[in-house]
Fold this protein.
Amino acid sequence: MSYEDTIVALATPSGTGAISIIRISGKDAIVIGDQIFKSVRGKKLGLQKSHTIHLGHIIDGKKVLDEVLVSVFRGPNSYTGENVLEISCHGSPYIQQQVLQLILRKGCRAASAGEFTLKAFLNGKMDLSQAEAVADLIASDSAASHEIALNQMRGGFSSEIESLREELLNFASLIELELDFSQEDVEFANREQFNELLSRISAVLKKLIDSFALGNVLKHGIPVAIVGQPNVGKSTLLNALLNEDRAIVSSIAGTTRDTVEDSISIQGVNFRFIDTAGIRSTRDEVEQIGIERTFSKIEQAKLIIFLFDGPDFDREQLNNLKDQYPNKRILPICNKLDRLTKKQIHDIEEEIQNVLFISAKNGTGIDTLQETLFGLVDTGALSGDETIVSNSRHYDALLKALEEIQKVKEGMDIEISSDLLAIDIRQALFHLGEITGSVTTDDLLGNIFSNFCIGK
Ligand code: GDP
């Protein structure tokens, strides 16, 4: 397998559709196109301009396989930077397979996962973080994750890193130059300016690192555990939030034996609700397993909804949750408002601060609950032009880069020799370069692109 090969893949999902797109990329793309395509106007694709579309037929020997549209993109002005053809054929799995087989017989290789985007990266059409954003964009399932991916794909994230890296590279060169003149005790790199740059880089790195907490939850959804005694209405609440009957609702205590998870989007932010098996002491083995899972799910949650259904709720459980998870937000919510008297409501309000009242069954208070949930997420960064890191590989590289920058700073403070300083700077440059792809290894590329879908 070589990156020089001309590759082909179905770019749209397999299965039946109105149209399907088959994509070919590589130096022979247009030549191969001319072997299988006859334009209705009779002109060869090889003579067509870039960025043009042509109606014609896919021909296998004398047999017409389909009437299609072929888009021609000549390298380097294409997605991959190579010659690219996109064949829009009719979306029957039979036609897709016939056309693909024909193209493979003409000498194309079947593309591996993410190979079109890998080519784009290798040909300098985008940097690594932009290429990764393509995968995120395809996978995005909420307005927030979509926005983060789009911003990253446009290069917002990597341009910031790249310009810092260049500044640091300049200093690295100056400090390395000093090594050549080590006998003469000269300083080409102005230490004061260098210190200032290091502080600036640290600040930017820290901000990006901090943004990951938000970026990560926005990408994967904010996990919210719904906890409470059996029968308080956890499943009903989940259904009300999801607006459909996904969890089983019944009035026999302990019905929700396993955990159920589902996501809803509130104002563009995904929340992953985890209905739990309720916590009560039990001898039932199956239920016991469910309860253990409940605790492990609570561990993963960012927010905990403590649901109860009246004045005789389990105070001990609420207090235990607060003690056990001091860093998690716990939302006390009283369900079955329809059954409560004014006095009961008053007493509960007196006892629990910021308690919300709902009726999961009637849908009362669900809007307020959704607003409250959204309000708990600090989405301030979403509205501005702030860069949000959502990729754990980037997060990792940023942490390592920051660590190296701190080392350089400490080295400067105790005035270590330029050669040691240069080593630490190179390390920091390496980790920054890992993000944008200025520094890559085959393993890293393999890892990233194998997670793509075929045809992208
Ligand atoms: P879970 O065990 O906590 O998941 O509780 P369920 O969701 O299965 O609900 C237990 C029972 O309470 C069911 O019969 C529901 O119909 C009922 N229920 C749930 N929410 C409400 C509500 O807001 N008002 C009233 N009156 N009943 C409710």
About this structure: Confidence is low (pLDDT under 50) at residues 244-258. The first strand starts at residue 7 and ends at 10. Residues 7-126 form a domain with the Gyrase A; domain 2 fold (CATH 3.30.1360.120).
